[in-house]
Amino acid sequence: MALRVVVVGAGAAGMSAASRVKRLLRDKAEVVVFEKGGWVSFALCGTPYYVGCRVKSLEELTYYPLEEFTKKRGIRINLYTEVVDVEADARRIRYRSRGGEEGVYEYDYLVLATGARPRVPRDWLGYENVFTLHSLDEADRIRSFLVANSVKRVVVIGGGYTGVEVAENLRGLGKEVVLVHSRGHVLNKVLDEEIASIVEEKARGHGVELVLGKRVEALEGQGGRARRAVLTGGDAVEADAFIVAPGIEPNTVLAEKAGLRIGETGAIWTDEHMRTSNEYIYAVGDAVETRDALTGGRVWWPFAPAGNKQGYVAGTNIAGGEAVFPGVVRSSALGAFGLYIASTGLREEDAPRYGFRPVSAYLKARTRSHYFGGGPEIHLKVIADEETGRLIGAQAVSEDSSAFWRVNIVSALIWGKATVWDLFSYDQSYWPGANPVWDPLTIAARLLLRSFRGRDWRTLS
Amino acid sequence: MALRVVVVGAGAAGMSAASRVKRLLRDKAEVVVFEKGGWVSFALCGTPYYVGCRVKSLEELTYYPLEEFTKKRGIRINLYTEVVDVEADARRIRYRSRGGEEGVYEYDYLVLATGARPRVPRDWLGYENVFTLHSLDEADRIRSFLVANSVKRVVVIGGGYTGVEVAENLRGLGKEVVLVHSRGHVLNKVLDEEIASIVEEKARGHGVELVLGKRVEALEGQGGRARRAVLTGGDAVEADAFIVAPGIEPNTVLAEKAGLRIGETGAIWTDEHMRTSNEYIYAVGDAVETRDALTGGRVWWPFAPAGNKQGYVAGTNIAGGEAVFPGVVRSSALGAFGLYIASTGLREEDAPRYGFRPVSAYLKARTRSHYFGGGPEIHLKVIADEETGRLIGAQAVSEDSSAFWRVNIVSALIWGKATVWDLFSYDQSYWPGANPVWDPLTIAARLLLRSFRGRDWRTLS
After folding, report:
1. A29 touching B, CB under 8 A?
2. Relative to the CA of A458, which of A6, A12, A296, B272 has its CA 20 to 30 Å away?
């Protein structure tokens, strides 16, 4: 009899697991996916660009058409079908379809890919012009509303990834945009102040009004529509529409029903094989926590590359293989206002909390050789631990995509537990059309090495 | 009394050493540079672009104007002054200026930065229309000759870095270009066949006639001008000008006069502090060999980033500091015909010679997410050792600069002795405008992991 594998959630992580099982076991596995929405293998990261009409259709935001999974890969997919309970001892799930049909399905292995959800005061969403943006359908509703109601002015609440990208896209549509963020700087989970300031300067240059360090205490309105966001201190900002992007939290409802262990971060706990505390249940994607390979602790890091790899790893193990997902070092990236923005590791401000004594180098440099025009500027910060010399973080911003790549080089070095000496020494190549002969990364290493003067470079470890 | 430091050669490596000593010791060091030519801190890598008029003036090819070194950094520089002998026991050099003036100069420490030189049959250079390209002055002579003689057709001899870049630049000037290369593929020192073929296809698309696998046996001409390059087998190629770029060799003349140890590669031997076999003589740049951190052996790797770092390391040590240059992993890069071309580590073809059993993944993929237009294609090859799983090389070609950066990520991983499992696992970030969620590097890792099926990923090491 075929191995019965049930996957809950048809996002990238879930479909990655489903595909991997079928790939390895083919007819020896029956893989069934339950998805409460109507989309498969979708890219939530792309939704701001759909709102901004840079991505024309929602179909473009799926990695593959449905038939790729059903016809070609032989996966059974139930759309608009929500899994409402997991009976772990009996190894079966209960589902309910959009039409109200209920059913039970037994599994040999279950994969929970239930994702994350926005944290929003419930009463805010009672207004028809207040939106979150955490699904393709929500993206569609926002875009429709903007057009149908000739929206002129939008307040975006929250200056994290989604907030910043939505604000940029709304400006691209010619809307007046106010971005309200409760902290003193945007993107404060991943950027230190000096790098975030560059993003803010660019945002303002693009016409976004930034209201920083103020919390939205309430939305007020009438006739079913919100009119004003009331801020800490009593000021208010008016708008025709409000997009609430206040951060997300892992969706652990089913995991809790199944009695699975929830980790210290509030997300589903798994071991490095992506197995939960129940040996027949795996979990992957934005609903799970993972290992922080830099600090050695646990971290909830809901980004797509990790989710995809986790799906691949879970699928491999379910199929009888031997694979591990080793964790993350907190790499992430975005683009906004013509900038590539990237970070990895810890922010300098956060590093002491993990037992590090941070030292940092911050520099502004040209991305290419002067005789190739120099290229756009890059603002680069690299952070190391004063005691061991280990690299513990990097952040960069530039109009040039090398900001993204240079930070990923530091990510690869951090992965290998590299020191500032390694940052100086690793064999960075050079071509004048791509970088200066003293790459900004190498210069950052030189600046950092000043903090270690008198110490033998090789003993930094 | 101030420490007297003499540097022979004002290229980037030499000036890097000179600057570092002055930076650390200031008035406690007297640094004197002898340079047989007229340029300081020059970028030889830029000369093909000067020939192609993409770099307008030779001054642009110097990193800093002369005054930066003399006035601001307090370095004494003697241009057009050749060091003709080193009397190591007496710790002094003998020099001769362009005007014929001779002299002796004593040193506490000597830095040899004598560079490399092209390997060309001496009689070829007797023709006034035959050139090498290994100095700014030669670049100037070529550019002048092309204009003054209305050159229509040029034969470039040698399909290495210089040959390929010169060929591209001459096409950019509208010349007919024939590139003759003795091996079956261009860039055969750094690229395997399948990657080199992409470059060749692009070269032909740009109108360069490629003659591969044939050696130029002789140049024939009359009236002081070469007219034909006679190839193996008797065929000949005619042209108005000939640029000979047949590879370079380390310039060890002074090192041999000083009785220094020459390494197994034919370049000057140094320890990791960049000290030669004479404790008062350091050597840096294209004249020295270094450690191959991948194979553990010695390698002559005459590229600018290594030279600059070696200068920095030598200068630090001369000034009483403690720095080491740890070697290279054979990273290099170039651009030609709209392509970024990069490589690191060993070619698959060469790997067995160093005791590796190579397995490789080769793929063609889009550089960005499909809903951001996909970006240009990248051709990527990653090579690993079948026994240990260690990464031992990567090569990439793309119109997108990410080819350059992705290879440098592998370079950083190789530096950390990473395995294919690390290539899968390191925390590569994702933003749809920069890469697909499954980055081509991660896909290469997945392909490579097939060669290790059944082995615990973590035990690959």
Report:
1. no
2. A296
